[in-house]
Write a structure and sequence with these properties.
Elements (H helix, E strand, L loop, with lengths): L2 E3 L5 H11 L1 E5 L4 H15 L20 H4 L4 H4 L2 H10 L6 E7 L11 E2 L19 E2 L7 E5 L4 E2 L11 E7 L9 H4 L2 H4 L4 H6 L17 H7 L1
Parallel strand pairs: 1-2
Antiparallel strand pairs: 2-6, 3-6, 3-8, 4-5, 4-7
Helix pairs in contact: 1-5
């Protein structure tokens, strides 16, 4: 498992490992205080969140959508300087999606830690994992973050412990690509107006040069402020 220390690694270190291996884990990006705050606030949200509706969501899994409409605990992490530096280096080239998985409980193979096939981001289009391909589990402690490319074969593992596993996925897509979740509708505008400007941009209130994303000829941030 490729792990880099968050206190000393650079965005270039992470980007190089990410593009080479398809994934990398960085330790120590969340403090104990942030972990506990996130657990508590997500616990409040999960109390009113149903389990999944299909096999993809997981019939025993609770998924929180529109995260930034419901909690402020990940605002700082979503725009962490190291993370943004990695995105600047990676999304500007061939990858179109970078995912980050933030464990709030210990992730182990037994409790269903994210599973992935190393090097699969370099496979020819259409190839699927076979019996001879290694499938690894991203075991990591709370406070870490796993970066992995959208083109890397990955998925959730089976939780065989009988105890829940809590984690948060933040997905970043190239600015010209329609994202998986429509945050412009999911997060109320009165909330967005009070978020940091960089987080507003990441939620969709931005343009991809020269003009993708304009609203009536203006930058969407101007429209947001005018309301």
């Amino acid at each position: 498992m490729a792990t880099l220390p968050g206190a000393t690694c650079t965005a270039q270190d992470v980007a190089q490992r990410l593009t080479s291996d398809g994934y990398v884990i960085v330790s120590g990006l969340m403090s104990d205080r942030e972990i506990e705050a996130a657990r508590a606030d997500l616990g409040r949200i999960l109390a009113a969140t149903p389990t999944g509706r299909n096999e993809f969501e997981g019939f025993d899994t609770q998924r929180v959508y529109a995260l930034f409409a419901k909690t402020r605990t990940f605002d700082r992490l979503a725009v962490h300087p190291l993370l943004l530096g990695v995105l600047d280096q990676v999304l500007g080239h061939y990858p179109v999606v970078v995912n980050t998985m933030w464990p709030l409980d210990e992730f182990t193979e037994e409790n269903g830690a994210t599973r992935y096939v190393p090097g699969s981001h370099r496979w020819e289009p259409g190839r699927q994992p076979g019996a001879g391909d290694p499938v690894l589990a991203a075991a990591m402690p709370p406070g870490s973050v796993m970066f992995y490319l959208g083109s890397l074969w990955h998925g959730g593992g089976a939780n065989r412990t009988g105890r829940p596993r809590l984690g948060v996925i933040l997905e970043y897509a190239a600015a010209w690509l329609r994202p998986q979740e429509n945050h412009c509708l999911a997060v109320p505008r009165d909330i967005v107006r009070n978020l940091p400007e960089r987080l507003q941009e990441l939620l969709g209130y931005n343009i991809y040069p020269p003009f993708v994303g304009y609203v009536d000829g203006s930058h969407p941030r101007k429209v947001l402020r005018a309301e």
